[in-house]
Design a protein that fits this description.
With 227 residues, this protein is α/β, with parallel strands linked by helices. Helix content is 25%, strand content 19%. A hairpin with a 2-residue loop joins strand 7 and strand 8. The radius of gyration is 63 Å and the shape is rod-shaped.
Length: 227
């Protein structure tokens, strides 16, 4: 049971009214049961301690798994005794613990939660204007990232692709012919000079016509002498 046994009547009425508003506001999350006044029906066991939060949210299936616990405080109940007796225990439950405090008690609630190492998933402030009550989120703790069952293997390093040079588009080039073996080199010509050709005597010039006639006349005279 909460250490706050007696609240002022006005604060107790405000406390119960906020609980009923939240019961309607949070109904989409699951089955919600309110522990108001003498109707303490759904407890939450933390080790050997049994606590009755103001609101208990459970799943709608057959398991009725605990999803969330909610505690609503007034200006009188935001104190060190309340933080030790209820907040600290509800903060150790696996289900998230949500705390609702008056707008003027936010800083005191932050300090008490820090001093008592209370794991508050969400802290909300509320204030009433006329017949309307407004809720403001003032704190939300980051969810703890769970490690995967199997650690993913590191991706294999890819080898750098070697660029392949391709011929430019055009007519298909003929396949290269096999290389023809080189011919044997011709023997080098001798550098010795060939003997010069013999010079032939020029042909005698033909005699002129008068010389021919003189020769023809001299032939008979020669013949007579020989006789």
């Amino acid at each position: 049971m909460s250490p706050i046994l007696v609240r002022p009547v006005r604060e107790q009425l405000e406390h119960d009214r906020v609980i009923r508003l939240l019961q309607v506001r949070l109904k989409r999350k699951g089955d919600i049961v309110a522990n108001i006044g003498d109707s303490q029906t759904v407890p939450v066991r933390v080790g050997q301690v049994q606590i009755f939060p103001d609101l208990v949210v459970t799943s709608t299936d057959r398991t009725h798994k605990l999803l969330e616990t909610v505690e609503v405080e007034t200006a009188e109940s935001v104190n060190h005794l309340e933080a030790m007796a209820q907040w600290a225990h509800l903060g150790r439950v696996r289900a998230p613990f949500h705390l609702y405090v008056p707008a003027g008690s936010v800083e005191s609630a932050r300090r008490l939660a820090s001093e008592n190492h209370v794991n508050v998933a969400e802290m909300w402030s509320f204030h009433t204007i006329g017949d309307q009550t407004r809720f403001t989120l003032v704190h939300r703790s980051a969810p703890e990232a769970s490690k995967p069952a199997v650690e993913p293997r590191p991706a294999a390093t890819k080898r750098a692709a070697v660029p392949v040079e391709r011929p430019a588009a055009g007519p298909r080039a003929a396949s290269p012919r096999p290389a023809v073996p080189a011919r044997a080199a011709a023997p080098a010509r001798s550098s010795a000079k060939r003997p010069a050709a013999r010079k032939t005597a020029p042909a005698p010039k033909t005699a002129s016509r008068p010389a021919r006639a003189a020769r023809a006349a001299a032939k008979p005279a020669r013949a007579q002498k020989r006789k």
